[in-house]
Automatic annotation (TrEMBL):
It comes from Thermothielavioides terrestris. The keyword Membrane applies. Keywords: Membrane, Transmembrane, Transmembrane helix. Pfam families: DNA_pol_A_exo1 (PF01612). This is C9e98fcf-458a-4c81-9fc2-c1f31c19defd. Gene3D superfamilies: Ribonuclease H-like superfamily/Ribonuclease H. Residues 1-22 are annotated as: Disordered. GO terms for biological process: nucleobase-containing compound metabolic process. InterPro entries: 3'-5'_exonuclease_dom (IPR002562), RNaseH-like_sf (IPR012337), RNaseH_sf (IPR036397).
Length: 344
């Protein structure tokens, strides 16, 4: 029998006419979905999550909650725009709600960069996520050297670089992503309001589903590269990200979003980032866009150059002070020598 992870080899492994994607937009559909979440395995995790919305954060709204259930090979697009709180409060036959699932520490949920998802869920629906494994932090921990663990990567970069996809799957993924961007990205003439269009446009339906479908493959890849110590660090950093996102001082577009959490580098807690000055220059994620990423790289380069210039300036000043001191000592010795000649 094949394992759940091996069944991800073919993203289109479904019956004819069934794309494996279910729109959950009624209370009965929520209850039926929850019935299918009972008794799922926890290793590897069974639940892979993502959210889409308009300005997704405490300052915006949630439109779609994407949930991929690995053992069932089903992806659910939960219509938060339509259902609102009913999406999280409707019970299954056993009385368990989606809120219960999300807040259960014993049920692992995989997110990629959980911060704004957690912020939106907590602010709008009072959900305190638990049992989170942040895939962005797993990718960070799976890198080969501590020097490379300075900034985090975005999901698109991880998929492009690491996802074990065939050439055909990679082309299909790029095509779906491009079609979605044209509809919702403002710089491409789109609008995030398209996530609230009902019925959901087919291109957006595919866009919402495809990234969460790839998460299990990335999880398996990064998990193989990590040891037990790094797994523990990732879980701790994931918990700290959730806690940080729930704080009153959390900034969804903060200046340090692209910086690695300190505890993944063996330093201080990630929550220390809350104390950083809000006036600091934002550093976008690596795949936030060509212009913003170039700006971030230029800013980082200028900072390094400035620091080097300052260090050299200190060295030169110390050298000049040493030379001046030697010159003064030489003058004093000459004067003393002359005074000795006069006295003799």
């Amino acid at each position: 029998m094949s394992s759940p992870m091996s069944r991800m080899t073919n993203l289109d492994d479904h019956a004819p006419g069934d794309d494996g994607i279910d729109m959950v937009d009624t209370e009965s559909a929520v209850s039926s979905m929850l019935d299918g979440l009972e008794g799922l395995p926890t290793n590897p995790p069974s639940l892979y999550c993502d959210l889409e919305g308009v300005n997704l954060s405490r300052y915006g709204s949630i439109s779609i909650f994407q949930l991929h259930v690995l053992p069932r090979n089903r992806t659910y697009l939960i219509d938060i725009y339509t259902l609102q709180n009913k999406a999280f409060s409707t019970p299954s036959k056993s009385g368990r709600t989606l809120k219960d699932v999300l807040e259960c520490a014993a049920t692992p949920k995989v997110f990629f960069d959980v911060r704004n998802d957690s912020d939106a869920l907590h602010s709008h629906f009072g959900i305190a996520l638990a049992g989170v494994q942040d895939l962005q932090l797993m990718e960070l921990a799976a890198r080969s050297s501590s020097y490379s663990r300075r900034v985090v990567n975005g999901l698109a970069r991880c998929i492009e670089r690491d996802a074990p996809l065939s050439a055909a799957e990679r082309r299909a993924w790029a095509a779906v992503k491009e079609a979605g961007l044209r509809l919702f990205a403002p710089e491409r003439g789109g609008s995030y309001a398209v996530f609230n269009a009902r019925p959901l446009p087919p291109a957006i339906r595919r866009y919402c589903a495809q990234d969460v479908l790839v998460l299990p493959r990335l999880w398996a890849l990064y998990d193989r590269r990590m040891g037990a110590a790094w797994r523990a660090r990732v879980l701790q950093a994931s918990r700290e990200r959730v806690a940080m996102s729930q704080a009153a001082t959390y900034n969804p577009w903060g200046s340090d979003r692209a910086l690695a959490p300190a505890n993944c580098l063996g330093g201080t807690s990630i929550t220390s980032s809350l104390k950083r000055p809000p006036s600091a220059m934002p550093i976008p994620a690596a795949d936030a866009g060509p212009s913003s990423f170039l700006l971030a790289k230029c800013g980082s380069t200028l900072f390094c150059i400035g620091r080097s210039v300052l260090l050299w300036a200190v060295v030169i000043v110390l050298f000049l002070l040493g030379a001046l001191r030697n010159r003064l000592f030489a003058v004093v010795r000459v004067r003393r020598a002359r005074e000795g000649v006069k006295n003799s």
